[in-house]
């Protein structure tokens, strides 16, 4: 199956003199944003999607997706993202590249500041997702890109026959640790408890992999090296003892934090800064909707992000119709 984009989606740079009133602004081009765009465009809304980096979001750095329905053999995050883009491209989605910093309600419309310029619409869907959490330990920033990584798909091939540590016990950590065994000699999974949070199917696969070693109830205290990572300092959380391990790379998968700064003064957030919505993805401000990993929810998956996007687009359409 070829999933290469044959043509790129319509892309437009933001210019000062062009400020039309859109029906809907979608912030973020991951599965939630792209699905929202698909449904909104099919409802004939005048839509613009704003993305700061790459379409597809964090999904693009996932090596293999095995739980998105319709793909029994699985597919890569890049392939799935390209297919989603292809679908909205057929409907001529307008995309602007930029960093949205705030949303302000002005009368019956919303002004979104993107790189210092306002883009206006009758409704907004926030689908800005999450970003990887940092460990906040000595050596993390110093060796970032020189042995410390947050993306196994991007950096894994550099670690052929090397020893790697993966921090975390969730789906991301286990999935990416399994991916890294393609290259590495040994992969040490460092987890703060003695039970994985990851789905059982992944946990079983990791347990059965002869290249994977588990360091239970342990955490990282420091990353050391000269030019590159050479050693990590571990702490056993039961005995409180410190130990050292010679290692060539550290991959960090300890969860993520929501990209909700742009609305922290605007809509209701929970204690962890995720956006609170009702079942129709409506936030505390009528006309502003949220979809995908950015919102308070039970299960953060591509399939639930896509579902959120569809619901948010439909709710936005109803909201816009009532304005008229
Ligand atoms: P996650 O599920 O929140 O797991 C984070 C892991 O890091 C947990 O094991 C946690 O330990 C550990 N951790 C958190 N803070 C830590 C710290 N300061 N020091 C050491 N360890 C720390 O995050 P995720 O794995 O990135 O997944 C995010 C969401 O995406 C989840 O909903 C997940 O199911 C979903 N996802 C799904 C798939 C899939 O279905 N194939 C793949 C990737 C991600 P504790 O367990 O002790 O809390």
TrEMBL record:
<comment type="similarity">
    <text>Belongs to the class-II pyridine nucleotide-disulfide oxidoreductase family.</text>
</comment>
<protein>
    <recommendedName>
        <fullName>Thioredoxin reductase</fullName>
        <ecNumber>1.8.1.9</ecNumber>
    </recommendedName>
</protein>
<keyword id="KW-0274">FAD</keyword>
<feature type="domain" description="FAD/NAD(P)-binding">
    <location>
        <begin position="22"/>
        <end position="309"/>
    </location>
</feature>
<dbReference type="GO" id="GO:0019430">
    <property type="term" value="P:removal of superoxide radicals"/>
</dbReference>
<dbReference type="GO" id="GO:0004791">
    <property type="term" value="F:thioredoxin-disulfide reductase (NADPH) activity"/>
</dbReference>
<dbReference type="GO" id="GO:0005737">
    <property type="term" value="C:cytoplasm"/>
</dbReference>
<dbReference type="Pfam" id="PF07992">
    <property type="entry name" value="Pyr_redox_2"/>
</dbReference>
<keyword id="KW-0472">Membrane</keyword>
<keyword id="KW-0676">Redox-active center</keyword>
<dbReference type="InterPro" id="IPR005982">
    <property type="entry name" value="Thioredox_Rdtase"/>
</dbReference>
<dbReference type="InterPro" id="IPR050097">
    <property type="entry name" value="Ferredoxin-NADP_redctase_2"/>
</dbReference>
<dbReference type="InterPro" id="IPR023753">
    <property type="entry name" value="FAD/NAD-binding_dom"/>
</dbReference>
<keyword id="KW-1015">Disulfide bond</keyword>
<keyword id="KW-0521">NADP</keyword>
<keyword id="KW-0812">Transmembrane</keyword>
<dbReference type="InterPro" id="IPR036188">
    <property type="entry name" value="FAD/NAD-bd_sf"/>
</dbReference>
<comment type="subunit">
    <text>Homodimer.</text>
</comment>
<keyword id="KW-0560">Oxidoreductase</keyword>
<keyword id="KW-0285">Flavoprotein</keyword>
<feature type="transmembrane region" description="Helical">
    <location>
        <begin position="21"/>
        <end position="41"/>
    </location>
</feature>
<keyword id="KW-1133">Transmembrane helix</keyword>
<dbReference type="InterPro" id="IPR008255">
    <property type="entry name" value="Pyr_nucl-diS_OxRdtase_2_AS"/>
</dbReference>
